[in-house]
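In response to reviewer comment 3 from the previous cycle, which asked for concrete evidence that the modeling workflow produces usable outputs, we include below a single protein chain processed end to end. The sequence was submitted unchanged, and the resulting structure tokens are shown without manual editing.
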Amino acid sequence: MEGLGDARFRVALAANGAGGFDEACREFIRIPGALPNGADPTKLVKNLCANYDADELRFNATARVPLGAQIMGSEPWLLELAARHLATEKSAPRIDLNCGCPANVVTGKGAGSSLLRDPEYVYACVKAVADGARGSGAHVTMKLRSGYDDSSLLRENLLAAREAGARFVSLHARTRAQGYSGRANWEEIAFAKDVLDIPVLGNGDVTSPQRAAELLRVSDADGIMLGRGAVQDPLIFRRIAATVSRDAQGVVRVSDDVFEREFEVELVIDFLRTFAAEVFKTENKPNGKRGSGVQAQELETFKVGKIKSIVKYLFAGNPNLLPHMKSVMQLDPTKTSAEDVLRTVETLVRAEWQTPQNVLVDAFSKRNQYT
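The workflow returned the following structure tokens.
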């Protein structure tokens, strides 16, 4: 979710009632695999973690969504230093080690899902994070995939994370080689539940309350983590919370969707407006000569591009809106302001909105191979 799932997106999800999730996690902080020549490690880590704000989703004295910090790297001593800074200086309630990213630019540097090739390395990195957070109250967790090229080391990697101090793990039930293609194998989440005596969160292909319930039935996971589904449907957390239940015997049920169309439309428009307001606010801060000629147009192009990035996924889950995607994508930022683009999108949502359907083919899942 790096790039789209940024602070603006998180605030828009949480601020207007479209939320419904227990916790959010910031996009990962890249910790280098080695200390650059002449660099001060303490200063380096401080700079890398500067944009993490534990109170990013605090809206008033009583309304707050906890925000976990996620780090990614391959050098244990630097991971420990980063975890200590995030836990003690930045008050992170949770520090998650990313062992899931499949991108070549990440795995080529020995980070992300590449750690899964060696359970001893997983242990060393998770332990470094746990050592850094020790005594702070911050929970240490790990997100992982089923494996690198296959899932043959899944048991060993799960046990390494637990022994190193992870309080829970989040398992995306695909290998690195799968990328986002095919279907997630939720049976592997069930396998993780059998192996571990710490909580396991299930991840992968949760794009509706029905899919959430199916994952829970198949895996008996302790919770669900999702990303792509929230891009396609900003109400998905709220839908799941309102319709999916599990009783004391572990029986999972899905009730009828309780949202009326008018209610949905207003929440989606509130989401869009909040997202746009965050984009406009953040990028309109004075910055040198930003207000002059070419730079002013670059700023407007940026705003329009951000709105289009939301529309690309939001419309994909709505059969009535999908035919309008091309016309929105073709709006020219040199001729149409970001405010006008937003109004156009709002008009389309009011007229055509439908409850999103399961959508698995999008810009994420088209990146099929990571070889």
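The chain has two domains: 7-254, 261-352. We consider this sufficient to address the reviewer's concern, and the full set will be provided in the supplementary archive.
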